[in-house]
Every structure is written in C-alpha cells, then in structure tokens.
Amino acid sequence: MNLEKANIKYFETLKKSVLSEIEEKRKKDDLSQDKIELFKSKSKEIISRTLENYKTGLNSNPKIKWKEENVIQFPRYANKISRSSLLDEDIPNINFHEVIAEQLASGSIQAYFPFSFESNTSIRYLIKSTDINTAIKKLNVNSEDHTIILFSGYYDTKEILKESRMKNIVHLASSAPSVKNTVFILNKNDLPTIRFNELKEEELIEIDKSIGLYYSIKETENTNDFEPPAVHPRDISPIISLSLILNGTISWNKSAHVVRLDIESKHENKGIITPIESISAFSK
C-alpha cells in the first residue's frame, strides 16, 4: 500500500514538473512568423470578401462628400487565445487564423452596415408582405433614380419583389436582429459610402491600408481566477490578446431621405400595420 502511494506521489510530482516545463517553454519561445502571416493573409481575405459583398449597397462615387454627414465607426475586435496557437510545433488551435476575422465580418460589417440604414431612416411603414409592391407604387419611386435594399430577406419577400417594376433591387446580409427581412428605399445618390483611414498607433501593425485593416498582438496574463488547475498540456498555455481593427467609417448624407418598409411577422410583434392609403409619395 505504501509502495502504491509512493508511485502515485512520484507520478503526480513528475506530471507537475512536465507541465511546468511546457508552460515555461511556451512563455519563452518566439511566436511563429509563419502563423502570424497566415493570420494576416486569411484576415485580409475574409474582410475583403465581406466588404466586396456590400459593394452593391454603396454609393457609386466613393469620393463623394456631402455638406453634412452622419458617420458610424466600425468597432474593433479582440480575442484572447492561447499563446501556443502561435507557436511552431505545438498543439494546433483549429481555425485560430480565421475566427477573429469572421467575428469582425459578422459582428462589425454585417451588423453596422445594416444598422446605418436603420439609424438614417426618415420614415417607417409596417406592412403585410402581400402589400410590398402596392406600397412601392404608393411611394411613386422609379428605377432610374431609386434603389431598393433588402437585408436578409426571406424567400417569399424576394419572390414578391421580383414582381416589382423596380430594377435596382439589392440583396444584402444582416447580422443585426432589428434589420432582417427589411426593405429600404432611397435615391441612388443618397446611398452611403465606406471610407478607410490610416491608423498611426504604436502597437498596431498594418495588414492592408487600402481597407483600413490592422492588427496587434499583446502578451497578457490569464486573469480568470475561476479556471481549474491545468491537467493537460493544451490547458497551460499563457494567454495573448490578438486584435483586428477595421479602421473604416460608414458615411451618410445627413439630408438623405430613407424609407423603411418593415414586413409583418407571425413570430414577432412589430407594431401596428400602416394602412396603405397612409403611405405618401417619396419626397426626394
């Protein structure tokens, strides 16, 4: 029995020693430049692709300047990951090079671009899906001057809009819960533009200045006091903060006239239906 206890104590001591050595090694080893480059290239690919998907919802003149503008800034995204994720010859962290860019694409671009339409709405109507095209006719808009933007439209909404006399119908994704299956109508000259600016912060490293994309890596401490003691090598890695910054703004003409058509939902109470006869002609 004493021998069994001695063996248990020996192996526990050995395990602590091995885990301690692994932790020290992970603290001292240099970060892998190959993995950092992979993170940079994948981040640029994901963000560039997402921005390209919204190109049809932007003003055709990206350099346009209005007398007065409403501006919305894209937020920064940071994530704490194990330092071992960026070390060579260590336990791999699947998709470490994609996850932050995917979060930035979904939580920033796909949320804030639709939100900018919501925040710049001039007038809102709540209608039945069967009344969409009737409402558009009441607005008295035309294909030459106006654009319809449908965010995360349902199948039946898309099919109904196909019967519209409007040619400029743009379908865009939205991760903003309040802007789903929602139609916006506005003059093409009032569509927003996205502008990217150079950042000059000491800790930031440029990925692609043309789309305002930067990143930073900060060594940090794992301050989570509720973490259980490490029992596996993958659980003892020091933590680093990996940030991805899209330094861009969504700019709107402050005098833009934007009509929002909310579609009645069986699953959500959106308010009182607007009588069709109350819908007035587009004022711009």
Explain what you see.
The radius of gyration is 26 Å and the shape is elongated. The chain is built from five helices and twelve strands. Helix 2 (33-53) packs parallel to helix 3. The chain is α+β, with helices and mostly antiparallel strands and 284 residues long. It has two domains: 1-30; 32-278, no CATH class. The longest helix has 27 residues, at 2-28.
- Backbone structural class: alpha+beta
User: What is the distance, rounded to the nearest whole angstrom, between the alpha carbons of the first and last residues?
Assistant: 90 Å
- The parts where pLDDT drops under 50 for at least 5 residues are 223-236
Order of helices and strands: HHEEHEHEHEEEEEEEE
Reported for the largest beta sheet, the result is:
5 strands, mixed
Rg, alpha carbons: 26 Å
Summarize, please.
This protein has helices at residues 2-28, 33-53, 99-119, 132-139, 155-162; strands at residues 69-73, 77-82, 123-127, 146-151, 169-172, 182-187, 193-196, 205-208, 213-220, 239-246, 248-253, 258-263.
